[in-house]
């Protein structure tokens, strides 16, 4: 599904990713861990198409060169980024934002768009599954949401859009234990043979709930070690020092 070869990314003359290699197959869950400033968010930004980076190397998404696709095309083709810091967007109603996002993807795929009633049914069902108070959906997008509500809202978007590749950038930070479980259940419910996940986290505890197939350690812009979920336990006890 996703093959990354020798990926390098610079911003403002600073080289952040320095030759990163990674392969994600359909249905796999990959976790990326690494010290602060190692390039984890930069990787998620580059994959989702954020502007401002000078990027070289190869990123193949199915049979396409991902780096040539515009940010909207990436979303239409099933890439979803759950932000580390979801933005507050005053004046934009959360429900309308969700419906517009979903219908834009459906339109790009040539599928029938949902009308207001169909959408409401879907959003009610998904919000119920995530134990997300529906009332919040009639508010402006993320405005005044608590940290945990913002993160849950990202997961709600993800479950409504049903992406092929979901990138979660520190979605677990700021969540209380109950919210962490709910968010993890949301991710686990979306796991299927066709959908893959790239989960960036600092904490092994998230991986108690979402069992990754692979764990990678990103240090100084490169993946320096990969392993199974036991690698996360090892990092928790030993830290990154022995790997850098
Ligand atoms: N626009 C920018 N200009 C200069 N340096 C930048 C810019 N954006 C990111 N960096 C630097 O690139 C490095 C990697 O940043 P990135 O946010 O990808 O790290 P991270 O691994 O996600 O860190 P954290 O775990 O703290 O979230 C950091 O040293 C950061 O200061």
TrEMBL record:
InterPro entries: ABC_transporter-like_ATP-bd (IPR003439), ABC_transporter-like_CS (IPR017871), FeS-cluster_ATPase_SufC (IPR010230), P-loop_NTPase (IPR027417). It holds the Pfam family ABC_tran. Transmembrane segments: none annotated. The keyword Nucleotide-binding applies. The keyword ATP-binding applies. Residues 2-244 form the ABC transporter domain. GO terms for molecular function: ATP binding; ATP hydrolysis activity. Keywords: ATP-binding, Nucleotide-binding. Belongs to the ABC transporter superfamily. Ycf16 family. This is FeS assembly ATPase SufC. The gene is sufC.
């Amino acid at each position: 599904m996703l093959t990354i070869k020798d990926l390098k990314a610079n911003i403002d003359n600073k080289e952040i990713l320095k030759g990163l290699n990674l392969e994600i197959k359909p249905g796999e869950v990959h976790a990326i861990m690494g010290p602060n400033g190692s390039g984890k968010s930069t990787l998620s930004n580059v994959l989702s198409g954020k502007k401002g980076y000078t990027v070289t190397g190869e990123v193949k998404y199915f049979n396409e060169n991902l780096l040539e696709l515009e940010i909207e095309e990436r979303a239409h083709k099933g890439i979803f980024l759950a932000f580390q810091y979801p933005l507050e967007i005053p004046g934009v109603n959360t429900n309308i934002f969700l419906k517009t996002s979903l219908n834009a993807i459906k339109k790009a795929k040539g599928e029938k768009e949902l009308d207001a009633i169909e959408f409401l049914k879907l959003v009610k069902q998904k919000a119920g599954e995530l134990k997300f108070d529906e009332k919040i959906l009639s508010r402006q997008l993320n405005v005044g949401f608590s940290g945990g509500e913002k993160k849950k809202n990202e997961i709600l978007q993800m479950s409504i859009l049903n992406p092929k590749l979901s990138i979660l950038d520190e979605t677990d930070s700021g969540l209380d234990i109950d919210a962490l479980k709910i968010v993890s259940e949301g991710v686990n419910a979306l796991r299927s043979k066709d959908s893959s996940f790239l989960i960036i986290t600092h904490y092994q505890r998230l991986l108690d709930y979402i069992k990754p197939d692979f764990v990678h350690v990103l240090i100084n812009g490169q993946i320096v070690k990969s392993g199974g979920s036991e690698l996360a336990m090892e990092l928790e006890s030993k830290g990154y020092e022995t790997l850098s």
